[in-house]
Design goal:
- The protein is an alpha/beta fold.
- The chain is 41% helix and 21% strand.
- Strands 1, 2, 3, 4, 5, 6, 7, 8, 9, 10 and 11 form an eleven-stranded mixed sheet that branches.
- The radius of gyration is 19 Å and the shape is globular.
- It starts with a helix and ends in a 7-residue tail after the last strand.
Length: 287
Amino acid sequence: MRRTFQFSRFRWLAAAGLWSALLFSSPNTGNAEPSETLIAGGTGSGLEIIRLLAEAYSQQAPSEKIKVVPSLGSGGGIKAVLKGKLSFSVSARALKDKEIAAGAISYEIAKTPMVFLTQAENPVDAVNLELLTKVYSGQSATWPDGMPVRVVMRPLKESDTKFLRGLSAEIDQGIVDMVSQDKAFVATNDQQNAEALENVSGSLGFASYGQILSEKRKLKHLTFQGRNDVLADLKAGDYPYVKTLRLVLMGQADPAVTAFCDFVRSAKGAEVLEKNGFLAVLSEANQ
C-alpha cells in the first residue's frame, strides 16, 4: 500500500511541476492565449468542484470547453492568471493589493467546512481536543484498536495548518515541533494530502469537506466538538472552521470567462456546489 501511495505522490508532483513549467516559461501576454478551451487551475481543494461545475455548465453552453490543470496552489493560480496563462483560477485566499493593482478581480463562490479525517476503515467516529492535543504535541497516541495515530498535514504556512495551530498554544507548538523533527507526513498539495489520508494506516488529518465529497474520497469525517452535520452548522452561521473559495480573473476577461463565473454564482451552480459539500455564495442578482 505504501508503494502505491509513493507512486501516486510522484504522479501528482510531476504533473504539477510540468504544468507550472508550461504556464510560467513563456513571456507575459496579459491575457490567456486565444483558444476554444478555457484553462483553469489554482488551489487543489477547488479543482474537482470546478470540473463538476464545468460539466454542468456544458449542458447549457455545449460549445464552451473548460480544462482544469493540476494543482498550482492559490498563489500559483493567481500568478498564472496575471501572466495570461490561465483563463481564471480558483483561490482559497483573498487577492493581495499588488494583485488587484495588476488587474485581477475575484468573486467569492463558495464556503466549505474544514473537518478532521481518517481512513474509511477506522472504527472511530469522533475526536476531541484532549486526543488532538496528545497527538499534535508529539505524545504517543493510538486509536481504540491499538493502531498508532499517524499525522498527515499540509506545510506550516498553509491555511489548513493554520486552522489547526489556532486550536491551542500547545497544539501550535506541537505541530511546529512535529514538522521540524519529521514526525508527520507533510503533503505538498491538497490531493496528496487526501491520498495520504486514504493510504497511511492510522491516519489523522484535516481538509475541506467539499474537497473530500467532490473527489469522492474514501475517508471518514470525524465529529469534533459534537458537530456532525457540519454543512448545516455552516448554513446556520455556527461553524468556526471555514474555507472560502473564490474565482480569480482579469478585470477585462474574455466574455466566456465571465459567463462561466455568472453560472457558478447562479441557482444552477449552487445546486452543484451544495451537492458536493459547499455552501454557495450567489451573486446579488440571484439572491
